[in-house]
Specification:
Blueprint (H helix, E strand, L loop, with lengths): L1 H9 L2 H6 L6 H31 L4 H25 L2 H22 L7 H29 L2 H33 L1 H29 L14 H8 L1 H31 L3 H34 L1 H21 L3 H25 L6 H32 L4 H7 L1 H29 L1
Helix pairs in contact: 3-6, 3-7, 3-8, 3-10, 3-11, 4-6, 4-14, 5-6, 5-8, 6-14, 7-8, 7-11, 7-13, 9-10, 9-14, 10-13, 10-14, 10-16, 11-12, 11-13, 12-13, 12-15, 12-16
Length: about 425
C-alpha cells in the first residue's frame, strides 16, 4: 500500500519534473523562496556595481585587491561566529548586518553625483556581500539536505535563485531609468529582509523535524576552516577548480567594462545595459537549472558534468580570438555566466554534501570568499598586465585556452574524488 502511494506521488507531473519525493516539499519550497529573494535583491544591486566598474575601469584591479583584503579581515570574524553560536543565530545576524550597511548606502548614494570614494566602497561591499550571503545559504542547504537529495533538488533550488535574479534584473531594466539607482537599493533592501525572515523560518522548520532539538554549535577554532583546506586533497582540488574558473569570468567582466566605458555614456544608461545582460543570463540559467542540471549529473556523472563547462567555453574563446566586438563579447560572457549559474554552481554546491558540518561552514566559506576573491585578484592583475603590455582583447583570448585545458583536467580529477567520498558517506549511513 505504501509503495502504491509513493508511486502515485511520483506520477504527479510537477514532482516528476522537479524529481522531488513525498515529504520534501516544505523545506524545498522555503529554500526556493529564500534563494529567490536573496538573489532578487542582489541582482537589483549588481547592475549598479557594473556601472561603478565601468566608471572605474582603470582601477578595477585595485578594487579587486581591496575586496580580497576585506575578505581576509572578515573571515576570522565569521569563524568566531560559527564556532560560538548556533546556525539559527549567526545566519540572520550576518544578513541583518549587511542590511544595515545597505541602508547607509541608500542615504549616501546620488547616482552620477555619488562621490568616487563611495562608489568604490559600494563596489567592494557588494562583492563581499554577494559571496558571503550566497556562501552561507549553500552551507545551510548542504547541512539540511543529504547527497542524494542534493543531486535531485539543488538544481531546482538554484532555479529559485535564477528566477529571483531574473525578477531583480527585470525590475532594474524596467525602472532604473525612471526611478534611479538609489530606489533600486531600497527595493533590494526589502528583498534581503524577506530572505532573512525565510532563513529563520527554514531553520525553525528543520528543527521541528528533529523534534525541536536546537542545532549543535559547530565549535572548533577560528582558523580551522582554512587549515582544513590545506590538509585535504579534495578541498585543494575545489580551490584549483575555482582558481582556474575565475580566470575566465574576470577577463570577460573586465573586458566588457572596458568596452562599455568606451561606447556607453551615463550612469543609468550603463546600469540599464548591464541589467539587460543580467536578465538574459538568468533566463538561460533558470532553464538549465530547472530542466537540465540534475538530469545531466545523473546521466553523465559528476566528472563529465564538471569537464563540460570549460570545454564549451574554449569554443567561445576561439571565436573571440578571431573576431572582437561588444555584442560578441557580451554573448560569450552570457554563455559563461549561464553555465556558471546553471551547471557549475549547483554541481559545486553538491561537492560539499559529502563533507562534515565544520567543513561545510568554515572551509566552504573560506573557499567561497578568500580563495574566490584571491583568484579574482590574481586574474585582474593578469588582465591588467596583459593589457599594459599592449595586447588586445582578441590576443588575450588565446592566452586563456591552455587555462581551460588545465581546468578540464582538474575538474575530471575532482569529480572522481567526489564519487569516492560519496560512496564512503553512503556506506557510513547504511
Amino acid at each position: 500500500m505504501t509503495n502504491a502511494i509513493k508511486t502515485g506521488h511520483r506520477k504527479n507531473f510537477l514532482e516528476r519534473l522537479v524529481r522531488v519525493n513525498p515529504g520534501e516539499w516544505p523545506r524545498l519550497a522555503i529554500a526556493f523562496c529564500y534563494f529567490f529573494f536573496l538573489l532578487g535583491g542582489y541582482f537589483m544591486l549588481r547592475p549598479i556595481r557594473g556601472t561603478v566598474a565601468a566608471n572605474n575601469s582603470d582601477v578595477l584591479h585595485w578594487l579587486y585587491t581591496g575586496t580580497f583584503l576585506t575578505m581576509l579581515a572578515i573571515v576570522p570574524l565569521f569563524g568566531f561566529l560559527v564556532s560560538r553560536f548556533r546556525r539559527g543565530q549567526f545566519i540572520p545576524a550576518i544578513y541583518l548586518f549587511f542590511l544595515f550597511d545597505l541602508g547607509l548606502f541608500i542615504i549616501g548614494f546620488r547616482d552620477d553625483d555619488t562621490p568616487l570614494w563611495m562608489q568604490r566602497t559600494f563596489y567592494i561591499w557588494l562583492s563581499v556581500f554577494n559571496l558571503f550571503v550566497v556562501s552561507i545559504f549553500w552551507s545551510f542547504m548542504t547541512d539540511i539536505f543529504r547527497p542524494g537529495q542534493a543531486q535531485r533538488l539543488f538544481g531546482f533550488i538554484m532555479a529559485g535563485g535564477s528566477l529571483g535574479a531574473m525578477t531583480g534584473s527585470w525590475i532594474s531594466t524596467a525602472f532604473v531609468l525612471q526611478l534611479g539607482s538609489r530606489n533600486m537599493m531600497v527595493a533590494a533592501a526589502a528583498c534581503l529582509l524577506v530572505a532573512t525572515v525565510l532563513a529563520v523560518t527554514l531553520g525553525r522548520y528543520t528543527r521541528k523535524q528533529h523534534h525541536s532539538r536546537p542545532t549543535a554549535v559547530i565549535g572548533g577554532k577560528i582558523w580551522d576552516g582554512a587549515v582544513r583546506v590545506f590538509q585535504s586533497k579534495y578541498l585543494l582540488y575545489v580551490c584549483l577548480l575555482m582558481l582556474l574558473h575565475n580566470l575566465t569570468p574576470t577577463f570577460l567582466y573586465n573586458g566588457l567594462a572596458v568596452l562599455v566605458n568606451d561606447q556607453i555614456t551615463g550612469f543609468d544608461q550603463r546600469t540599464h545595459f548591464f541589467s539587460i545582460v543580467d536578465l538574459i543570463v538568468q533566463v538561460l540559467a533558470f532553464s538549465l537549472q530547472f530542466l537540465v542540471t540534475s538530469r545531466l549529473v545523473t546521466s553523465l556523472g559528476m566528472p563529465r558534468t564538471l569537464v563540460m563547462v570549460p570545454m564549451m567555453l574554449a569554443a567561445g574563446f576561439v571565436l573571440l580570438g578571431n573576431t572582437m566586438g561588444p555584442v560578441l563579447f557580451a554573448a560569450v560572457q552570457v554563455a559563461q555566466r549561464s553555465m556558471n549559474y546553471g551547471v557549475l554552481g549547483p554541481t559545486k554546491e553538491m561537492l560539499f554534501t559529502v563533507v562534515d558540518r565544520e567543513t561545510r561552514y568554515k572551509s566552504k566559506n573560506f573557499i567561497d570568499t578568500v580563495v574566490y576573491r584571491g583568484s579574482d585578484v590574481t586574474a585582474s592583475w593578469i588582465f591588467k598586465g596583459l593589457t599594459s603590455a599592449g595586447l588586445s582583447l582578441s590576443q588575450i583570448s588565446w592566452f586563456y585556452l591552455p587555462v581551460m585545458g588545465l581546468w578540464g583536467l582538474g575538474a575530471w580529477r575532482l569529480g572522481k574524488l567526489y564519487i569516492g567520498l560519496r560512496q564512503q558517506a553512503n556506506a557510513r549511513n547504511h
